[in-house]
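Below: protein 1.
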Amino acid sequence: MRTAPKIGVLVGAVVVVAAAIGVRMATAPRPQAAEPPLAAEPRKPREPVPVPELATPRPPVVDASVPSTAHPTPKKAATAKPKLLTESELLEKLRKAQDTDDYALSYELAREGQRRFPDSSNAPEIAAMVVKSLARQGKVSEARAEAEEMVNKYPDTHWAREVERHTGAHAHRNQVPPQ
């Protein structure tokens, strides 16, 4: 049997079944409502409630000869500067943030480490943490840009190899600068 007659037979069968269902539904008894719906009573409009007039407040009378205790002059508060973390404390906090999946804090700490300790022996690790924090936050293009910069700045470090392995960023070697 060819395909066209098969499709015709199938369409015919679907039409017959649909017609049978339609006839059955049309002849089936419909349930009657037990009680007619109640007519809604018309609501009376509410009368507006009078609002009392508020008096305009008067400014307080101040006697200049009497020292005021109501508004004392602010004393200089002891401005306690937050204790800056040492590099080892910052790294410890940074690693803990990475381990607990707090990548926003990790990113902030890593940026602070880059700003405060740019020439440290831990600078490659801190730069790798920036890349990792961005990537884990879903900021892929930013992470890739940081990775490119990181692997070129610290090309022969363990951290650069790890970043290369995870991001595909590679150091640009033996390239002659444009003239």
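Below: protein 2.
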Amino acid sequence: MKRNGQVDLAVPSHWGQLILSVIRNPYVLAGVVFLAFFFFLYLAALSWADLSFVMPLTAMSYIFAALLARYMLKEELSWFRWAGTVVIILGIILIALDSRQRTEENGMTKYQQSINGGVTHSAAKGRNS
């Protein structure tokens, strides 16, 4: 809005300008790069642990947001927000303390067993060789 002024979306010719201004914005480009980086890290984490373990760990973004808002942007955060951040931290600690990060039986996840028809990991390796 500050650079290009008000855009009237009722006029189709303004759509192209809007799209080009968004594509050329370095902040949007940086956001897309970070999002792609997060996506691939998330996929890697899902290959190592169950979704029920990995998903709550993504809540760490709220902690980073609170810390960055306070110390980088110099925002004043109320004690309610800090208390909420502490609750999130406690939840992450509870999830991380669970020793079962992956549901495995015979070296395979339940999904892998369903794909292989219940065949054990060693038998599936021999069958694929």
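DSSP finds seven helices and two strands in the chain.
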